[in-house]
Design a protein that fits this description.
The structure holds 2 protein chains of 2 kinds.
Chain A: E1 9-11, E2 14-16, E3 20-22, H1 29-36, H2 39-42, E4 67-70, E5 73-76, H3 85-96, E6 103-107, H4 112-130, E7 138-143, H5 154-157, H6 160-173, E8 178-181, H7 189-198, E9 203-206, E10 210-213, E11 228-232, H8 237-250, E12 255-258, H9 264-273, E13 277-280, H10 283-286, H11 290-305, H12 309-312
Parallel strand pairs in A: 3-13, 6-7, 7-8, 8-9, 9-12, 12-13
Antiparallel strand pairs in A: 1-2, 4-5, 5-11, 10-11
Chain B: H1 8-12, E1 20-30, E2 33-39, E3 51-56, E4 65-68, E5 71-73, E6 76-81, H2 86-92, E7 99-106, H3 112-116, E8 121-127, H4 134-139, E9 154-161, H5 164-167, H6 171-182, E10 186-193, H7 204-211, E11 217-221, H8 224-235, E12 241-245, E13 261-263, E14 269-271, E15 278-280, H9 281-285
Parallel strand pairs in B: 8-9, 8-11, 9-10, 11-12
Antiparallel strand pairs in B: 1-2, 1-7, 2-6, 3-4, 3-7, 5-6, 12-15, 13-14
Helix pairs in contact in B: 7-8
Classes of the chains: A alpha/beta, B alpha/beta.
Chain lengths: ~325, ~300
């Protein structure tokens, strides 16, 4: 390869400058701008920005403690705290639309109807703000996989039938990119992916966190206020790679791969297993600019190996 | 915080929000605590009470550790560290020349003007390694050449430690207090230990109970239980204003993960890293003396 590899990728109607984005709930870009300076809004560290999951109503989230470091990772039980749809549309969305990169808006509901309400509300707001060109700017991610809620959400995403129903219902009201973000806490993630694809999902994101529990070493009781939490970080990378590998064999739509990505080598591995786009999450907590750094290093890694993204994608599935 | 005082990474790296790799300039053992001084390229200067996330370059831990900026001189930044868990033990074991990732300064810090403005007396109250933010705070008092000149007629520093070994960590506070005296601000110190191996055998909250007067302003840092006890003592005294620098288990330190929230008295919640770590009594302790947000290391 003599030419610099092209890192741009398509995700439905969205064009991403490179394959690195963030996992929902791991980056507050406007907070980063206040702490590190507004330049980050002109040059976001991700090729598409995924805000924290939006719920219909405002939620305070789970009681503390909510996080703990674990070997090679961390566990969290935040519980989808947020301001709710109405406040998001009024206060947050206008600022998000000024970012230079595409958006993938994450929504989480406690019923099928709530997902439809969220998609309809966002569509209406985008219609009003940008007219009919918005599908090139904003996609929708259905969070049907948060392990820290006890109803709706992950219980739907754990069943192929219910996954198909919620994706199909949202598909009717959402003409833009539609992503189903899947939980790995199931026996057969490929079956869930197939159900989402059949119901009209344009892409599959995998994985959300692995449900786990940490014990307080003094009291010997569950440490987290929510008792259980979601495990993330390099500890889950082999598990997440296996999920992406299975999904690549199960679906034809693009896959957004994530789970413990911390280095450019990790990104190479996820893409080789079949990911079109790779998300950083927990590792960006220690280094908020991680996505941008990995994009630079991914380019170098592809050059060093004489690979293009197209050749790399899914190459783990080919015979030697 | 304005972009003009944005954390070090932006200046040091080509990419926004990069962290910077600092060099260990000195590691001084102070009893059971460690005084770690880093040379941080592009360090923009911190407000007292601001913190950084520190992670040894070859750390076996996944995340950085939130540590108060204890003192600074140009790009030399010092931290008072207790080896509590794996991450802090790694930091305490670093030798001169070794490298540390630094993200910061982060958080709000103490408002020095509000602490001292119009008050006769400022009380600094710290428990154990909670003494960390106070060398820098004392260094900012009585200075005419800093952006936040602040005057307090008198400063009383009350430090409580577990034992004499931990109390050796008081030295940087003692040094800063001496310098404050030289700048003409009356500054008295009282160091106590729980087991009586240095100073009186009492808790610093007992010292405070004796010394507190109506109209005092307080800057407090220490374990959650100590902070809650200080808040209870203050509630019984008229015209008091206290600011608490709180500790919480943190992942990101910048407001992204929502992991370090504490309940506020008005029923809302705040992130210790972003809305804090410095909170007023009214904000945090007015209703009940809320639960801790988890420890940084355990």
């Amino acid at each position: 390869m003599n030419e610099t590899p092209d890192l741009s990728v398509r995700l439905g109607p969205l064009r991403l400058e490179h394959p690195l984005i963030n996992a929902s709930g791991t980056m507050e870009i406007f907070e980063l701008a206040e702490v590190f300076g507004r330049e980050i809004l002109d040059r976001p560290p991700v090729a598409a920005y995924v805000p924290k999951t939006i719920t219909v109503d405002a939620r305070s989230g789970n009681p503390p403690p909510r996080i703990l470091e674990t070997p090679a990772g961390m566990i969290n039980a935040i519980g989808l705290s947020g301001e709710g749809l109405e406040a998001f549309v009024r206060h947050c969305l206008p600022r998000l639309l000024e970012l230079p990169c595409p958006l993938i808006l994450s929504v989480g509901g406690f019923s099928l109807e709530e997902y439809v309400t969220l998609a309809s509300g966002l569509r209406e707001a985008l219609d009003g703000a940008l007219g009919d060109v918005w599908p090139a700017k904003a996609g929708l991610e259905l969070n049907i996989s948060c392990p820290n809620l006890h109803t709706g959400c992950v219980s739907m995403g754990s069943d192929p039938g219910e996954t198909g129903q919620v994706v199909a219902a949202v598909r009717k009201v959402w003409p833009g990119l539609l992503v189903a973000k899947l939980t790995p806490n199931v026996a057969d993630i490929g079956a869930i992916g197939r159900a989402a694809e059949a119901a009209g999902a344009d892409a599959i994101a995998a994985v959300n966190t692995y449900k786990g529990l940490v014990v307080d070493r003094t009291t010997l009781k569950p440490y987290l206020g929510n008792v259980t939490g979601g495990l993330s970080g390099p500890a889950i990378k082999p598990l997440a790679l296996r999920a992406v590998y299975d999904l690549f064999e199960s679906v034809n739509v693009p896959i957004i791969g994530m789970g413990g990505v911390a280095t450019a080598q990790d990104a190479l591995e996820f893409i080789s297993c079949g990911a079109q786009v790779v998300a950083v999450g927990s590792a960006a907590f220690r280094e908020p600019g991680l996505g941008a750094r990995l994009a630079v290093e991914l380019r170098t890694a592809l050059e060093d190996r004489g690979l293009t993204l197209g050749v790399l994608r899914g190459c783990a599935h080919s015979p030697c | 915080m304005t972009a003009a005082s944005a954390p070090a990474g932006e200046q040091a790296g080509g990419l926004p929000a990069a962290r910077s790799l600092a060099r260990v300039a000195a590691n001084r053992t102070l009893g059971s605590l460690v005084w770690l001084t880093l040379e941080v390229p592009g360090w923009p200067g911190a407000r007292p009470g601001q913190f950084t996330l520190l992670q040894a370059q070859d750390s076996r831990c996944f995340l950085g550790r939130a540590l108060s900026v204890a003192q600074e001189q140009g790009e030399f930044v010092s931290f008072l560290i207790a080896p509590v868990g794996e991450g802090t033990r790694e930091l305490c074991a670093l030798r001169e020349g070794e490298r540390v990732w630094v993200l910061g300064p982060l958080g709000n810090g103490f408002d020095v003007r509000a602490l001292t403005g119009g008050r006769k007396r400022l009380l600094v109250v710290a428990g154990g390694v909670g003494a960390a933010p106070f060398p820098l705070l004392l260094s900012r008092l009585g200075c005419q050449d800093v952006s936040e000149p602040a005057e307090a007629a008198e400063v009383l520093v009350l430090l409580g430690f577990r034992d004499a070994a931990q109390a050796a960590g008081a030295q940087p506070v003692i040094d800063a207090a001496a310098a404050l005296q030289e700048r003409g601000v009356m500054c008295r110190m009282d160091v106590v230990t729980e087991n009586g191996s240095l100073g009186r055998a009492e808790k610093v909250t007992e010292t405070l109970q004796r010394d507190l007067r109506p109209g005092d302003g307080l800057a407090v840092c220490g374990p959650w239980a100590m902070c809650a006890a200080v808040a209870r003592i203050c509630a019984a005294v008229a015209d008091m204003e206290a600011w608490f620098s709180l500790e919480a288990g943190m992942a990101c330190g910048v407001g992204s993960c929502h992991g370090c929230v504490i309940p506020l008295a008005d029923g809302t919640a705040a992130r210790v890293c972003r809305e804090g770590p410095v909170f007023t009594t009214q904000a945090v302790f007015s209703s009940g003396f809320g639960p801790a947000a988890g420890a940084a290391e355990r």
